[in-house]
Give the backbone structure.
Amino acid sequence: MRKEYDFSKGRRGAVVPSPGKIRITIMLDDDILEHFRSRAEAAGMGYQTMINSALRDAMSRAKGKGAEAKPLTAAALRKILREELQAA
């Protein structure tokens, strides 16, 4: 070991940058975080990776519904039921 080290050209942060990822701070409820930590530990992966995967799944489901998708209202449900009952 050296007696002195030169850190004048050192940089703070991650040693290896992660392309396509951004470091953020997010506030999560305690029970949400505990849920993902316990599931991730059982699966042998990181909890942040599991949260990212869950967010990605939610994003892809939202995209699959399309921009035109609207929630099913009572009036629309009645109309669908009437049409189906008349066809039967």
